[in-house]
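Tutorial, part two.
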Amino acid sequence: MPCCTKRHAQYWRFTHDIGGKSEKRETGETRGSIVSGRVNMYTPEPRLMETLIDHQTNNDEDLIPSSLQTYAQVRRAFSGLVRAIYRIEVVGAGRLPATGPVVVAPNHESVLDPIILGAAISRELRFVAKAELWRSRLLAWMIEGLGAIPIERGRSDYHAAALVLKALEAGQAVVIFPQGAVRGDRVWKQGAAHAALVTGAPLVPVRLVGTAGALSWGRIGFPRLRVIVGKPLDVACDTKDPDAAVKLTERLRVAVESLA
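Running the prediction step on this input gives:
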């Protein structure tokens, strides 16, 4: 069982470095919840987090939609086609735990990455995705049915944090892309590490090879793709060490980039 509880969730508070100084405040630069941004795990935010978890989202069925059947149907319908088009080679699939909570952390080079990962991995995955995708009703209906978790970028999204925590507490596999986006600063953010540290869930590095050549800005192709699953990084619950997420994120980055 993960160690995720309200008591752990209440330690999350976002900070932002300004002018070389660490200033505790919520700004547009804090980059939303555990998916990115920095968290000071010393400072309690009990009323905010407990309100979200106890009142707004106290119905587990609403918080964690039962998407297994839909996900399985979609995967059966499209995974074979996706794997055939890109001749996907999957290495180390058995390293991903078949049950129990797990944080899956791949590199992010293309908007196709979630589709490729979903086709390559047989276990149901809960993807954390930018909330802008929910602006289209059709797309929102599709990804909502697949159990995706929306994250508001540019602000501290505590509701998304609660969703991720509850999903892991329920024994689900959650995918968080530490790089956040396929374009931009490409800095490895600490969201996946924070989720693992708060819950104690294993952190699984995954490398997607060749997806940028399949679909990226101004480029479309059909290269052979590889999905390499690394050995899970054992993570102990740690909500006290402010440097723990930094260290774990660096371990994760090295683990992903060493996969070949």
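Confidence is low (pLDDT under 50) at residues 4-66. In part three we will examine how such features are distributed along the chain.
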